[in-house]
Sequence to fold (486 residues):
Amino acid sequence: MYTAADLRKGLKLEIDGYPYIVTEFQFAKPGKGQALYRTKMRNMVNGNMLERTFRSNDKFEKADLEERPMQYLYSQGDDFIFMDTQNYEQMTITRDHLGENTNYMTDNMEVQVLLFRGAPIGVTLPITVTLRVIKADPWAKGDTSGSDSKPVTVETGYELQVPPFVDEGELIQIDTRTGEYMTRVKG
Amino acid sequence: MNPQRLSVLRQRAVLIQAARSFFVGQGFLEVETPIRIPALAPEAYIEPEPSGDCFLQTSPELCMKRLLAAGCDKIFQVCKCFRRNERGDRHLPELTMLEWYRAGADYRALMADCEALLLALCPDGRLRGGEGQWLALAPPWPRLTVSQAFARYASLPLDQALAEGRFEEVMAFEIEPFLGRATPLFLCDYPASQASLARLDPDHPQVAQRFELYLDGLELANGFSELIDAAEQRRRFVEERELILALGRPPGPLPEPFLADLARMPPSAGIALGLDRLVMLFTGSRSIDQVVAFTPESL
Fold:
């Protein structure tokens, strides 16, 4: 159980059956009046934002969250199958809960899966991933159009902008937080 | 230490020294009163820090008023106060207070003190606000009643906010951010229900002779004409204890020696000014964390 005095940025709590993370927090106490805790929170399941002002005597539950290391095995339609690397149990997460993460996931990748009341609600990927380019226009030497990037498609089907010298079949590193090209990998 | 931080701590020391010189120059006596005391003024929304069988003071108010009752006429103090669970960009659970009292004066004398003090601390007469604007410190500073402030800034009138228990919320989020942006501002004529230890206005008993000083949206000081009717003070204390009980906290004993002395206290006025916030304003610091040597989390 938390009280309003526990509120701070990054605190995870449960409201109306959902886990929320506090993203903004302001403590106010005008004059001799009672303390007010104004918060903005993000619903960790559906991403919706909630603004709420609490008072000193308000109490709320801790969000029952757990992060477990898992390996991504394979996908089947919109189902993505993971294996808990500690107890080898398999777990299915749907595409909805993975969002843009599916752009960067390759078979056997190690990830952290976030569970709310035992049910998976999201994954945390490594900050960088290495993916193979499967489709790219060839670099026309002497191209005078002045363009300094071109679109390519990587093995997951994700399309991004890279420098013109990147060729089909090469490996590139991508930042999973921004989805942007970082560097070419010799492999 | 990072040079920015060191510079703020230097300015803090200079400001505190200058504030002391100002009051000494005005004929005030600097006093020290005990920080650890057995009975506080009961206040529903200020939670004290227990210390053995006593409490750490939440304010030096009671002891300073007893000094007035004992015959002191102009006194000031710079001291630490402790308030549990008060922590934010503008709050520390251990804060530094500048508090002063004048016997034979009312709250208007304190307003003049505020004007003179800030000018003494800031000889060029202007301060840079948080949005890059200048605050002109030349007196007199404008006065706005609480009722006018609600009419000007709030989404609902004062009476309705009080009736719905939304006074603080509206004050904090709809009104305060706009107060004292171009010049310092006195917010005055607090409703009698927000009087605390203040005297009600004899001509308009629906309001208290209490004011708050705002600079750049920041509440800097709270001053009032002191209530010197011991029976009325006891009644308000008992009422406040009921509220503390209802909030689920032990109310603590009533400060009987203070109530006994109150009967001998001359008409007076007193004010508490948050020194940490004053340093914030003078150093352009957005967070109170930037103006102290250590935050509680860093200990």
User: Anything to note?
Assistant: The two ends of chain A are 51 Å apart (CA to CA). Chain A has a mean pLDDT of 90. The first strand of chain A starts at residue 2 and ends at 3.
